[in-house]
Amino acid sequence: MIASIARALTHEHMIIAWAIFLVSYFVFAVGRLPGTKIDRPAMAVIGAVLMFVFGVFTPAQAIASIDFSTLVLLFSMMLIVASLHLAGFFQWVAHLVIEHLSPQHLLPGVIFTGGVLSAFLVNDVVCLVMAPLILGICKRMKLHPLPYLLGLATASNIGSAATITGNPQNILIGSVSGISYRDFVAHLGPVALIGLFVDWALLHWIHLRSDTTDPRPLPAQTAVQNQAPDTDLAWPLTVTLAVLAGFLLGFSPPLVAAAGGALLLVQRHREPKAIYGDVDWSLLVLFLGLFLILGGAEQAGITQELLTTAERLNLHNPVIFAAVVTLLSNIVSNVPTVMLLKGLVPQFHDARSAWLLLAMSSTLAGNLTITGSVANIIVVEKARTEAHISFVEYMKIGVPVSLITLAIGLLWLRFVPY
Predict the structure, then answer these.
(1) Domain segments of the chain: what residues?
(2) pTM (predicted TM-score)
(3) Cβ(34)–Cβ(53) below 8 Å
(4) Model confidence over 39-72: pLDDT tens digits?
(5) pLDDT tens for each residue of 66-106
């Protein structure tokens, strides 16, 4: 097969395709092309365009390489989350959950609130909104914010493993695997729930077990106190609940999410452009560029060569597969890793289990280092002015949380029957 593809392309085209592919993944690994301002989304666009310019694939082949279901589901969920954000939903939830907590209950409050929200909504946005709220609460309670910020970052990754809509890589896996929303939750929901308890136990042991501060109620005026939800919250909340119900009832996630996103654009008090402004367009650009780069790599025979090489590593072994996914996710990020491996998974004897293992390991691997997940980077950047989180300080909790939750996930998927 590879030989026939190679004969169809000139030798120069093969070299160019390899160069574009390797440079693109190098930028995905380091985050920026050295000496330039080219970041991951920009490199995805440049790489995709170069595949066209040098004739690696035709426009028809390029269109065929794009998974439009993934893009529709991702964009629609962004519209839903943006509508909730603008209506003050996240501030309202933080107010309801945290306002009555004493310092000794604040950590589990942060972990389970962040984890549950991240399970059903895109985890990056949860961290974006909740990190400043947690900083404000800790400041008024005179608590060091480090354990609570670490709790938010790690819990958002763990919680997002539970569902198809928890994070971008799960959205991709849900679209290409055909696994239903309920099936996904049934398999990975328990792993995420157990993982949140593990996260709580480890953070308490490492950071709070020697804390002798007397428990105090949250002061009357906190950063989230008296922040009533927007008067228009009822509409986006109703639509969101209807969308989640549609997921659980077995309807097509892209179709249900698209219908919900369209309904949320029908508002009297908010311009649609305000919602568009809250959408992460760079992530959509990254996805589109990755589809095209991988499509060009497939036409050039690159992905088949890589997958043939990967088969020699015995990736059919779940432990080895999870280890490789964890390593790649922390080198080139989890979305490019899932994009690269999505062609290998259907070749597994039990493809459905392999898809679930890929979703679980690529997500939980995000807790290993700060750069392992966009959610981690968001929390660190949001906290920079108030609390510095070093790479080593993060790894003190990130490494044990990742290794233990990955082990739990492997054991759960291997021994718990469905």
Answers:
(1) 2-415
(2) 0.83
(3) no
(4) 888 998 999 899 888 888 888 888 888 888 888 9
(5) 888 888 988 998 899 889 888 888 878 777 766 667 777 88
